Amino acid sequence: MQQEENNGFGPFYRQRGSGAIWVAITILVVFVVVTFFAERPLQHNVLAFYFFAISLSLLAYMVGEMARRLCLFGEEARHCRSRYEGSMKKALKAAFDFQNSEVIALFAIMIGLGTYASFYDMWYSYKTEFTRLFFLNAIFIPLFVFLFGLRKLSRVEYSQVNEKENKNLADGLAWGYYFGYLKFVLPALENQINLTEKYRYEIKVHKVFIIIPKNCLILNEISNKQSDPKGLVKIAVNLQPLEMKRGGIEYRTYKHTVHSIKDEDTDETYYCIMEYATPVMSLYQMSDDPRAALSREERDNQVNLFIAKLREILDNDPECKDKYKLVTFGGENQDIGKIMIRAMKECTLDFGEKD
């Protein structure tokens, strides 16, 4: 059922929220509640032990993280001249670049003081095993985890980081599509339609319909045997081209193509501006070339991210926001004519009326 959504493309990705944080909070609350009932009645020495153990464990974690960062610095120091302009200070800062470093420093001091203060309460029951446990958690465990790669990000975490910091392949394609094309052709669309005298009154929806097949296969023509077996979609005319100086070319031209679509149900012919989102062809080619190491599964993931990022970019640009519509489909055995007619009907309520 879900695969039938969006013309067989499937459901779009939604932005990740804070579900993981709430699960973590829930687990912590359950732990505290269970511990509270398990340790009743809470005596002073029991509370002192928990305070001491938590402070000691957190301090061990901080020391262990510093030890791991020191290992990273050991490698960066070897590349000081090539990567950090010969500045050891920059290399050190890169390795120990904590976010909110002031808060972390204050937190570490508080943990240290808390451990020191609680140590007096635990003095009479203190055992040398605590010292051994501290150094195991502070030095051995962090470096063991680091050496054997047990601390690597999961696929979910990796995806979250990439989405937040615009590091996905799809993000680069979407931004390139925007800055290299859509940012200047969409604001000029209305004027280019008006300059095309023959069809300016035939085009009912003044938007560029950007077609995105799920398999990312971009063909030279929108109408083909697979997507338009009856040949109901035809090229009508090119809009008046937009000319501008760009990249050392004095008169670089950008033009949109008007397509005619015959509706079998009403026998009417409609006109719209539509084109493939050409950047996604790179995803198809990468998934087809073993050197790029992009699996089909990852390609499907990236095209979803491309759609989400492109929509976000265009919706945040007032000059582009209402000048486009993304049209997705499964990519195989889909009637592009019917899909486009539905898409145009979604854009305007009086779509069927003729002047």
TrEMBL record:
What keywords tag this UniProt record?
Membrane, Transmembrane, Transmembrane helix
Q: How does it sit in the membrane?
A: Multi-pass membrane protein
Concerning Pfam families, the annotation shows:
STING_LBD (PF15009), STING_TM (PF23417)
Residue ranges crossing the lipid bilayer per the database entry: 20-38, 44-63, 103-124, 130-150
One GO biological process this protein is involved in is: reticulophagy
GO molecular function terms attached to this record: 2',3'-cyclic GMP-AMP binding; cyclic-di-GMP binding
Specify the STING transmembrane domain's residue ranges.
54-166
Q: Which domain of life is it from?
A: Eukaryota
Domain spans labelled STING ligand-binding: 168-346
* Subcellular locations according to the entry: Membrane
Keyword DNA-binding tagged? no
Instruction: Output the Gene Ontology cellular-component terms.
Output: autophagosome; endoplasmic reticulum membrane
Q: Does the keyword Transmembrane helix apply?
A: yes
Q: Name the chain's protein.
A: Stimulator of interferon genes protein
Q: Which organism is it from?
A: Exaiptasia diaphana (Tropical sea anemone)
Q: What is the lineage of its organism?
A: Eukaryota, Metazoa, Cnidaria, Anthozoa, Hexacorallia
